[in-house]
């Protein structure tokens, strides 16, 4: 039986109702294979910048006899996707928010044909949300999960023709996550708050970063305090 992690399964769950996927940084091609096996999509393009993961992806696809439904490509981000490819849903997961932003920015020639983005930044989630806000994507789903003691935020955004505006709190914490504020949300931000306090206390009094950390700490404290009400 083909098994994938809860993180990847959660990412896959947001593909519906679309039937064609581009998985950027596919690694072993686990998500496209899972989607095909469960008849959740009709086809996929899996890309990775490194030759090793591409070779592993091709082996897995061949082992599961999906060569006709999953196309694997070696290359950088969305640069190897053409306007003739089906790009209903683009998945970019398991990398830093700044890298995800770069991939999206350099792939704008493709995004005009795209309906949904499923993004899972490991860090700098606010960078991703800011880019979505600036490029007519509305965040329609968000989920925070914990796997092997690591928190992951999954951001699902759909293309819109109108401008999207989010507050600073929504950019930092997530507009939907802010409304839910589940136990993983509280646990994650309490951990970040504790870490930032430790750093703040070690920063010299007149250091330029002292004010930034103070402001960030106050913002997190405000959100956590209001979550208790």
Characteristic key phrases:
10 helices; 229 residues; alpha/beta; elongated
List the helices and strands and how they pair.
Blueprint: H1 6-13, E1 20-24, H2 30-37, E2 43-48, H3 51-63, E3 70-74, E4 89-95, H4 97-105, H5 108-111, E5 116-121, H6 125-134, E6 137-147, E7 150-159, H7 168-173, H8 175-180, H9 183-202, H10 209-227
Helix pairs in contact: 1-2, 4-6, 9-10
Task: Summarize the structure in words.
There is one protein chain. The chain is α/β, with parallel strands linked by helices. It is built from ten helices and seven strands. The chain has helices at 6-13, 30-37, 51-63, 97-105, 108-111, 125-134, 168-173, 175-180, 183-202, 209-227; strands at 20-24, 43-48, 70-74, 89-95, 116-121, 137-147, 150-159. The chain has a seven-stranded mixed beta sheet, with helices on both faces. β1 (20-24), α2 and β2 (43-48) form a beta-alpha-beta unit. α4 packs parallel to α6 (125-134). The longest helix is centred in the last third of the chain and has 20 residues, at 183-202. It is elongated. The mean pLDDT is 95.
């Amino acid at each position: 039986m083909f098994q994938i992690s809860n993180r990847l399964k959660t990412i896959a769950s947001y593909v519906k109702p679309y039937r064609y996927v581009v998985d950027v940084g596919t690694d072993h091609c686990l998500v496209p294979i899972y989607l095909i096996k469960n008849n959740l999509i009709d086809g996929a393009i899996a890309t990775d910048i490194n030759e090793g993961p591409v070779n592993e992806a091709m082996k897995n696809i061949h082992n599961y006899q999906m060569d006709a439904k999953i196309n694997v490509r070696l290359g950088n981000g969305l640069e190897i996707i053409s306007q003739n490819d089906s790009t209903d849903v683009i998945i970019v997961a398991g990398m830093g928010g700044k890298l995800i932003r770069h991939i999206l920015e350099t792939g704008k020639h493709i995004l005009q044909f795209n309906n949904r983005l499923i993004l899972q930044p490991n860090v700098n989630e606010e960078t991703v949300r800011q880019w979505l806000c600036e490029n007519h994507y509305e965040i329609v789903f968000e989920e925070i999960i914990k796997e092997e003691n690591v928190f992951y935020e999954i951001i699902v955004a759909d293309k819109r023709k109108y401008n999207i505006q989010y507050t600073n709190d929504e950019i930092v914490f997530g507009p939907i996550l802010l409304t839910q504020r589940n136990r993983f949300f509280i646990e994650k931000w309490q951990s970040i708050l504790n870490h930032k306090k430790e750093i703040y206390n070690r920063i010299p009094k007149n250091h330029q970063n002292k004010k930034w950390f103070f402001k960030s700490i106050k913002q997190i404290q405000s959100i956590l305090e209001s979550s208790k009400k």
